[in-house]
C-alpha cells in the first residue's frame, strides 16, 4: 500500500471508530416493527395502494364530465386526453381536424362555435411552438374544453354559458399576455415562417378565421401571418364582449 | 466449492442482452465519452465540474422552469449524479434514487422478457404527484417528479429536449 | 462503481449484503439502523413480502463524513435471498463497490451458502467483475443458535466451503444479538473505500 493509501486507511479507520463508538442509548432493543423511521412496504401495502389508486381514478373520472359514447364530442375528448399523454404532430393534427369538423356542426350556434375557435387557436399555437409553447397553453386547452362541454349541457342556463365563455376568453387574453411577456421584443412586421426563430412577432397564436361567425374552409396547420391573426382575435373578443354587455344590460333591464 | 477456475467459469457465462436482463454495454466505441472503462469493463460515470454544471443548467432551464417539483439524474446503480428541486420538498432522494434505479431495472428486465428492447414510457401517476422516468444514455436515468399542474404530454416534450441537449454534451 | 462528484466533493459508495435466503442480511442492516439511529440521517427502506422476506431489496444510506476532502456517502443494499429472485439480485448488484457475504451457520444451510456464493460469482461476472477483485467480507451468522442446541457448521468448515481461495476477511457473528455486526460493516467499508482511493486521488 502507498503512503497515501496508508493515510486514507488510518483516517478512515479513525472515522469509523468514531462513528460506531457508542450506540444510541436504549436503541438496541428496538425492533424494526416499532422503528418509526424504517420505511416498510409489504405486499399488503402495495395492494392497498393499488386499491386506493383505483378508487382515486374512479373518483376523478366521476368528477370529470365524460363524453358519452353517443356524444359528438367523443373524438375531441379522446384527442385532448391523448395529448395529456403525448404531444405529437399526429394528435395535434387530429385535434385541428376534429375542431374543424365540429365547427361545421355548430356553425349556427354561436357559443359553442366560439369555444371551438378558442380551442383551434390554442391547438394551432401548440402545434407550431411544440416544446417552446407556454406550459399554460396545455392547461388552457383543457379548461376551454371543459367549458365547451358544459355549455352543451341542456341544464345550464344561457347566462351561465356566457359567463363560462367570458371567463375562458379572459383566461385566454391573460395567457396571450404571459406569452408576450416571456418572448423577446417582437419584430412585428415579419410574418413568422420559421417557428424556431427566437424573434417572435406580436402574437404566436394562429389560424383564427377572419369572421367570428362564418365557418372557415378546412384549415390545416401551417405558418401564417401572426399580425393578422392577432387583429382578428382582438376583433372577435371585442365584438363578443360588446354582445355580452348588451345582452346583460337587456336582462338586467327586464328584471 | 472451487472458484479457482474463474477464467473458465467466466468464459462459460452468457453475456449481454437476451437473457431477459437489462443489457450491459457491449460496444464500448459507441458509448458517450463520460462512460469510461475502468479495470475489467466496469462502467462508471465520470464527469468533470463543468459537465456537472452544464447538466444542472439544462435541467433547470428545461424542467425546473416548467414547474416540476424535483429532477434527479441517476445512474443505474442508484447513485445520484445531479439533483434539483423547487425548494419546497424534502423527499428522501437517496432512497428515491435507489428505488428508481431498481424499478427501472426491473421494468427493463420485464421489457426484454416480452420481447421489447425497452418501454418508451415509464410513468407513475399519483393523486397529487407523479413520477416520470427516461433513459438519457445507457447508464443514466432522468427521474422527474411533478404535480397536477404540469401536463405529462408537455413534460415528455421537455424531457426529450433536455435529454437531447445532454446527449450532445456527453 | 463509486460515483465521484468533484463539484460537491462527494463519493457515493455501494455496498451490498449478499447471501442465501433467511441468512440475516436484512437483520444486519436493521441492527445498525436501530443502534446508530441518531447518526444515520437517512431511512432504512425495506420492501418485503407478507412473511417478512425481502422482496426487492433493502436500502440504507449512511454518511460517514469527510475523508481526504471527500464526503463518503455509503449506500447499503441487501438482496432478496430466495432462489426465485435471481433477476432482482443481479439488478441490485449493478455498480457494486463492495460485498458482505452473510452465510448461514446452520448445518442444513451448508449447500445454500455455496450455491449463493456461486450465484454471486456468476452475477458479478455478468457485469465483467471478477469476484476475486471485488472487496469482500464474509460473515458467518447465527452463531448464537448454538445456545439453542441447533447444529451449526464449525467456522473452519465454513472457511473451507466459502473462503478457501478468496481468503477474504471473515467474522463469526450474530446479527440478531449484534455480535460482530459493526465489525463486519467497518471492515467492509474500509476495504471498499481503500479500493477506490486511487480514483479519489486522481480527482484531487
Largest beta-sheet details of chain A: none
Output the helix-strand order of chain C: EEHEEEHEHEHEHH
**What is the gyration radius of chain A calculated from CA atoms?**
29 Å
Number of helices of chain A: 8
What value does the Rg of chain C take, in angstroms? Answer: 16 Å
What is the element string of chain A, with H for helices and E for strands?
Answer: HEHHHHHHH
Structural class determined from secondary elements of chain C: alpha/beta
Report the CATH superfamily of chain C: P-loop containing nucleotide triphosphate hydrolases
Distance between the termini of chain C: 18 Å
Mean pLDDT figure of chain A: 71
Beta fraction of chain A: under 5%
Strand content of chain C: 25-35%
**Uncertain runs of chain A with pLDDT below 50, 5 residues or more?**
26-36, 47-65, 187-224
- State the oligomer: heterotrimer
Query: Based on CA inertia axes, which overall geometry of chain A fits?
Result: elongated
Count of alpha/pi helices of chain C: 6
By CATH, the topology of chain C is Rossmann fold
Number of domains of chain A: 1
Structural account:
The complex is a heterotrimer of chains A (255), B (170) and C (204). With 255 residues, chain A is mostly helical. Chain A has one domain (69-254). Chain A contains 8 helices and 1 strand; from the N terminus they run H-E-H-H-H-H-H-H-H. Chain A has helices spanning 3-19, 43-63, 74-85, 89-105, 110-129, 136-151, 158-182, 226-254; one strand at 38-41. In chain A, helix 3 (74-85) packs antiparallel against helix 4 and helix 7 (158-182) runs antiparallel to helix 8 (226-254). Chain A is elongated and about 90 Å long. Chain B has 170 residues and is α+β, with helices and mostly antiparallel strands. Chain B contains 4 helices and 7 strands; from the N terminus they run αββαββαβββα. Chain B is globular and about 40 Å long. Chain C has 6 helices and 8 strands; from the N terminus they run E-E-H-E-E-E-H-E-H-E-H-E-H-H. Chain C has helices spanning 25-35, 86-93, 110-126, 155-163, 181-195, 197-203; strands spanning 3-5, 10-18, 44-48, 54-67, 70-78, 98-104, 136-141, 170-172. Chain C starts with a strand and ends with a helix. Chains in contact: A-B, A-C, B-C.
